[in-house]
Design brief:
Helices cover 48% and strands 10% of the residues. It is built from 13 helices and eight strands. Helix 6 packs antiparallel against helix 7, helix 8 packs across helix 12 and helix 12 crosses helix 13. The chain is globular. The chain starts with 9 loop residues before the first strand and ends with a helix. Bound molecules: nicotinamide-adenine-dinucleotide (NAD) and fe (ii) ion.
Length: 378
């Protein structure tokens, strides 16, 4: 069997690395960036400092921040309107997964003007994506999705709220500036939820059924970094814990090119139906999804348990570690704690079964399994 392995973009990583941005633009002949961010980050002092620093270096900056919490197509169209109206030469995505996804979708739309969802990967739309995309730079400000090193953007339909995936290696950033200082002020709740998303990526990628020993190694080290730092980063953040979480979130996203699994399929419908934050939805479902996966995969769970340095080196040990971790991080351990009601379960099960993530789960998941998992977690 022949396999193919692809690895991501250049990553500049470290405290204050964002100060290299102006020099990088100048070196690449870029002087008119459009920053894409979200309305909260747009008001934070580090964003204003980045804009000031660029302006000091005679770089003209426009900031687009009109995006929804779970981004929709019209956000992307409005951002493209700003690009058209302001004569820009590159895109800098600064923010969490939501802002970076919109930045990547605008990047695509600039020279691909058919309906955005024509490029939906699930209907084979990636074949229409050409190399004609502007220079793209990403700067993460959460440690969760790892979207900064990714090649996809998740954008929902304005009316149906159905999430579509725009995907192409051509949409990868040319360079990532990953500066843990930008994550220092993340509120505890967001740190916990985004950090559990990163843990879910690493665990699901390690278990995913495709052959990818390179990603397996990255995923295990990602799990180790999160074990060392997620509680500290949430409860009393310091540079070391923030740095480890930022690194582990990129490692999770690199590893999940191997595939995700049942937990992400349980989580996606919660965002679609109830607007639940992506990381929070994963956090609550993670212990239940992992419990479902143990039988038949005991050896892999033993490796995860060893990585977590658990006394109980088994799948059950991993599951109880995850429940304890959620409690410690003040994440609800039941779906009822995040607004799910019994009457939602049938619709959730339909959506989860239709989701794109679980075909890579190590064992098959049918609609009844999803229903049972939701009921167990309720
Ligand atoms: N492209 C992918 O591969 C991929 C994978 C998973 C999820 N996603 C998408 O990513 C999104 C979730 O991303 P996320 O978990 O990073 O959350 P997010 O982008 O929604 O950010 C969470 C919150 O944190 C705030 N925030 C961001 N940085 C901050 C900072 N430094 N200080 C203070 N507040 C800050 C934001 O304003 C927002 O309110 C979802 O839309 C999901 O669909 C994409
Ligand atoms: Fe995720």
């Amino acid at each position: 069997m022949i396999s193919q392995f692809n690895f991501p973009t250049t990553i500049r990583f470290g405290v204050d690395v964002v100060k290299e941005l102006a020099g990088y633009l100048q070196k690449n002949g870029l002087s008119k960036p459009m920053i894409v961010t979200d309305p909260t980050v747009a008001e934070l002092s580090f964003l204003k400092a980045i804009v000031k620093d660029l302006q000091r270096n005679n770089i003209s900056v426009e900031v687009f921040s009109g995006i929804h919490k779970n981004p929709v197509k019209s956000d992307v169209y409005k951002g493209t309107d700003m690009w058209d109206a302001t004569d820009r030469d590159c895109i800098i995505g600064i923010g969490g997964g939501a802002a970076l996804d919109v930045a990547r979708a605008i990047l695509l739309r600039i020279n691909h003007r058919e309906d955005l969802f024509k490029y939906d990967d699930l209907i084979g739309g990636d074949i229409y994506v050409t190399n004609d995309v502007p220079h793209f730079i990403t700067i993460p400000t959460t440690a969760g999705t790892g979207s900064e090193v990714g090649r996809s953007a998740i954008i929902a339909d304005d009316e149906t709220h159905q999430k579509k995936i725009l995907f192409s290696p051509k949409l990868m950033a040319k360079i990532v500036f990953a500066d843990p200082m930008l994550t220092m002020e993340l509120p505890a709740f967001i740190t916990a939820a985004t950090g559990m998303d990163a843990l879910t990526h690493n665990m699901e990628a390690f278990l995913a059924k495709n052959f990818h020993p390179i990603c397996d190694g990255i995923a295990l080290e990602g799990i180790a970094l999160i074990k060392d730092s997620i509680v500290q980063a949430t409860k009393s953040p310091d540079i070391e814990s923030r740095s480890k979480m930022l690194m582990a979130s990129m490692m999770g996203a690199i590893a999940f090119q191997k595939g995700l699994g049942v937990v992400h399929s349980l989580a996606h419908p919660l965002s679609a139906l109830l607007d639940t934050h992506h990381g929070l939805a994963n956090a609550v479902n993670l212990p239940y999804g992992m419990k479902f996966n143990i039988a038949g995969y005991e050896d892999k769970f033993r490796r995860i348990a060893r990585t977590l340095e658990l006394k109980n080196e088994s799948g059950e040990g991993v599951v109880s570690y995850l429940f304890n971790l959620n409690e410690n991080l003040q994440v609800p351990i039941r779906l009822s704690g995040i607004g799910v009601k019994a009457e939602h379960i049938e619709t959730l099960a339909d959506l989860a079964f239709a989701d794109f993530a679980h075909p890579n789960n190590p064992k098959p998941v049918n609609r009844e399994n999803f229903k049972d998992l939701y009921l167990e977690a309720l």
